[in-house]
Amino acid sequence: MDPATPHVTAADTTTAAQVVGMVAVLADAVTWLYDHWDLLAVVIGAGWAAGQHVVRRLAAKASEERMALELVPNRHFEPSLEEIFRRGVQLSRASTAMPWWAPRRSKTVQIRMRADGSSPLRYRIEGPAGGQRLLSIAPFGPDVTVTKGLPINDKPRQHTVRAEFILRGKPTAPLREVPLIPDPLQPLIDAVADLRGDLGDLAEIRLDIQRAPKWALKARRLQLMSAARRSEHREARRAARWLRQDAAGIDDSLSWHLQELLSDKPRSGGSGRRPVMPPVPRRVEPAQALGKLADDDQLVRVQLLVMCASNIEGRAQARLAQLQAAFDVFGGRSRWAMRGWRLGPWRVGADHWPTRKGFERRWDLGHCQPPRANWVRLEELTGLLKPPTVHCRLPVLATDLPTFEFGNPDLLLQGIYQGPDGRRRLVATYAEETLFEVGVGKAGGGKTERALAQAIGWAHAGGGLLFLDPHRDSWPRAMPFLAHEPLMERIALIDLNGLGPAPRVSSWNPLGMQNGQAAHEVVEAITDAYASALGWDDESAPRAITILTSALAVLVAVNEAACQAGRAQDQATIFQVRALLTDAAFRRAALLAVAGRLDEETRSWWDAVFPTLPPDSFGVVLNPIARLSSNPVTRAFLGQPVGAYNIRAAMDSRMIVWVCPGGSGPTDRLVTALLARDLLRAVRSRRDTPDDRRVPFRPYFDELITLTGAAPETIAAMFEDFRKYRCQVHGMTQLLARLPAAVRLSLVQNASTLATTAGSISAIAPITAEWGDAPRAERVATMERFHHYVSLSVRGHRVGPVQLRGPHLDTVFAAQARPQGVPALEHAALQNAAASPLRVLTERAAKQFECVTAFLADQASNGVEAPGLRGRYK
């Protein structure tokens, strides 16, 4: 055997045969598979379907245990970028709080922003049950209330549209950095601002956040780097091609050939063409090619789903278009775009086969299967990781501010609100919650018109009220809208202006005891009214207060005796104070008649102190009474023994009482002070009635500056105490600063409704300061006439300040206007107030002293004075 010939053994032959056999088997297998590819496809499809079924079942099981949190911000919620970023980190971390076997599609945290007419935008967080503790820790502090979210069950709507948004544009570019001021959620809230719950409108946005899987991120980076390299090579080839074309063009040009002919140097090459160096592809920098995907920090995948529904055709589609435009605000080199295809006028998307079923499964189960391009950093989602802030302008919905219904006793008219869609509606507050109201504004701005509209609406709903107007302008304005037969039975007019050739005046005896008043309360009310109107206090006028108190105590006791004797027509009036202090015979008769009714201290004062007083000490008490007596109207009104005016009875019987004192002079201020103090006494007397039986009553005070000038402490006490007795006060004034400090502080502190019209900046600034200068005084000062900024209380929450147009009577209550019934109304109002001709009442008041004297004489002749007291006062 030739030593150079390789030695082939049997083992080598066997191995070669095995290799050939294996190759033949593989070739046969490939041939069989090629011939039976359909069977292979069925097997692969069945395996994929079985795997998907298992994954879906596991994901559905994992999604059964989910939690929901409702986030409600307050009016001062203003988070920083760091607080929002920390919240995003919490959401990202909570998305992984799932069992190890849970598929990735179920490992997600969902932000639900929902508008269904119940609130401008409900903000809700849903996620794995294991992440509840982490998500309950609110990084926003006390400015956001976190509560457990209840399940939401939607009624089926007739028309529903769905959409999924994906990131389009450069895949590595971030979304636009939207500033926090104004709120990034403002475009979304504006898109649903005109949503109407009564039409079945619904709009919901769901943003799913999922931590980025490492393998998917690496695959995405490899894809982007490969694409960047290919792009760079294409650019290099394109540049080389253009360079060769430019060089060839130069060589073939006439100027080049002329240069060659004139040049002494020989050509460098045989062809005469210059060498061209092709450009080398640049190195692809990962940071530049990957953009926001270059770093792993806080990188998440997101899924953005939107659904709109309505019972009216076309409204859901229009709402979706508005939301799509709102998401354009976040767009830059990368933007949110609706997923699908457009074929002419038709769009094939989440509402159509084959993607609709998958959309509904993800929507119902809360699964996240985002598109490949939906990679974002948490900084890009800043505007969506928080509820609306203080810089967000929220619309006023029907659930926030109810719509006024004429004749509904539960609602109180506030004004006309114009929604974002231009639709106007009459808005109201709940009468039970509207305890005190304050209206500020310049003359003619519409504050009195607004109060009149509210009072007229309340009257037609069956409510009782007192409208106190020193200038009487409100009564002629209101009469055409109150001239209804059912209302005429409840309206009474107390007019002290004495207008016309034969004026009619009602009557009131502040000292009258025919209604069972407590004697000490009557004395206290009148004394306090005098002191308030005249500026008395215990330091400046202690003797005057004492004299008046003692005199009133005697006269009230006389009236109490007259009523018990069945002679109410013989009661003393306030004008008998002068006789009691200056007429010895009258004083002796009065003291003898009521000595047994007076307490020991009062009797001692009349025995020991009164005889020592000089005559000129009575002037400070008698001068105001003399002014009242010199005015025939006030003389007639206050000089009757049994008055028709009884504000406590008016409250309990739901009367509508219009009181016009007649002006703002010293005499008018004293009358106003007496009326105001009597109102305070009457309201406080309702403590004898159980709370559930106290009839609501609303006093309206026009021109608070005039009224508080007469009774500042009384008005302040009303705003502090009346709530307890179901009596709600409404006050109007031109300048808040001109009110006494006690009244101003009580008004602002207890006001359920605070309103202002246009005016000077200095006059409006105290109101806007209560709102935190939002809106600013400069903006409010430039409002149109009859417009108001109002803050209201509804269901325990403050609404506004919101801009309303004041209700104009001729527009709002045009259907209730009865101008032909005005004469009948005025006649009925005077009749209900028991008004009589001024001449008759004046004559009766002049004879009242004789009636009282006769009653005291009869008492003395019948020996009703206390035993042993006759000699004391002789």
What does the model show?
This protein has 874 residues and is an alpha+beta fold. The protein has 31 helices and 24 strands. A hairpin with a 2-residue loop joins strand 22 (787-794) and strand 23. The longest helix is centred in the N-terminal third of the chain and has 38 residues, at 214-251. It is elongated and about 165 Å long. It starts with 9 loop residues before the first helix and ends in a 13-residue tail after the last helix. Residues 864-874 have low confidence and may be disordered.
Q: Count of DSSP helices?
A: 31
Assembly of the depicted chains: single chain
CA(first)-CA(last) distance: 177 Å
Give the DSSP E fraction (strand runs of 2 or more residues): 15-25%
Q: Please give the radius of gyration in angstroms.
A: 45 Å
Q: Whole-number average pLDDT?
A: 83
Largest sheet: 9 strands, antiparallel
User: Regions with pLDDT < 50 over 5+ consecutive residues?
Assistant: 864-874
How many individual β-strands? 24
